[in-house]
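Worked example

This section walks through a single chain of length 374. The input is the sequence exactly as stored; nothing has been trimmed or padded.
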Amino acid sequence: MRTRAAVAATVLAAALTGCAGSGTGQPQTAPDPSPSRSQAARQPAPAPEGTLVMTDFGSDTVTFADPSEPGGGPDRSSVQVGTAPWGIVLGDDGTAWVATAEGVAAVDTSTRERTALVPYRTGTGPVTTGEYRGGGMGIALSPDGRQVYVGVNVPGGKGVLEVVDTRLRRVITSVPVGRRPFDVDVSPDGRQVYATGHDSFDVTAVDTGTWKSRRIEVAPYGTEGGLGSWLKPHHTAVRPSDGALLLPFEGERLAVADPRTGRVRIERMTADTHQHGATVTRDGTLYVVGTGPIDPAEDQGPSLTVRAPDGEERVIPLDGPHEEVAVAPDGRTAYVSGGFTRDGYWNGISVVDLTTGEVNRVGVGRRPLGIAVL
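Given that input, the structure is written out below as C-alpha cells.
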C-alpha cells in the first residue's frame, strides 16, 4: 500500500486548506420565523415515517422528501432556515435543529415551519456561503433533548462549541474547540460531547457537567502540511457498545480513539478513497461515505463502505461525490447526500439497498449535505 503522505504532497500547492472549498457568496436575510395564519393553514400534513429531511447547502432551506418516489414525491417541500445550512439533528418531539451560517434554526417537522433562529454568541464575521463560511457546522442533541451542541467555525481561528437550551432557545455557554468543527457527537450517556476539528487534526472532548475540555489528536498520517493537508479528520461516529470514537481516513485507516484515555489505535480499511461522512447503527455497523480519489491515477472512486462490527467490509460504488449518510430504522436502506462540501456536488441523493447493493439516484434538494430520517 502506498504512502498517502507522498500523494498528498503533490496536491498541497493546490489546496489552501484541507478540502478545497467553493467560494463565498453574498449575505442573505433570514426569513421571519412567524408565518401568518393563512400561511400556517396551507402547511402540509405531518410527514409519514421514513420521510427524509436534508439541509440544502446550496440555498437557505431544508427539504422534505419521500425517497421512494421519483423526484422526492408529491409531498416534497422546502422550508427556509438560514444561510448555507450544514448539519441537522432530529429531536423526539419532532423538532429538527439545523446549523446555519446565521444561527441554529428550529424546524417543526409536522407543520414544516421554522419556529426559531438562535443567533450564535461567537462572532464569525460576515454571513457568507461555501465550505469556509463562518457559523454552524456539526450539530448534535443531548440524549434528554434539553440541549443542542453546535460546532461554530470562526474563519481564520479556532472553533467554538456553543450550547443551546432547547426550551429557552438561546445559547447558554460556549467552549473553545478545534479549527473548523466539521462534526459534533455525543457519548451514549450524554456526559461528553465530541467536536471534530478538521483543520487541527483532533477531537475535543467536552464534559457536559463542568464544560472542561480535552484535546485528542487524531492524525494517523501525521500533521505534515498543516492547513494544506488532505489527510485530516472529517466525521466521527460513536460506537454504541463502548463509546469509542471511529474516524475513517482515506479508505485505508480507521482511527479508533478511546475518549477516556486519549489513546488512538489504527485498523485497516479497504475502500481506498477520500472519506467524509460516517454514522454507526445500534448493532455497531459503520457506514462511511467515500467522496472520490485524491490521486485519480491510484485511488478509487466514490463509494459507501459498510463495515461490520468484526471489521469485515463491503464497498458499494457510487456515481459522483457524496457527503453524509443516514440509515433507515430497519437497517435495509442507506441515504447518501450528493451535496458534498467541495466542487463536483450534485442536487440529489443516492438511495442504497443494503441487501442487494443496488443504488438509485434521486434528484432532490439544492446541494443536500446533512440528512436525517424522520
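What to look for: The chain has a mean pLDDT of 89.
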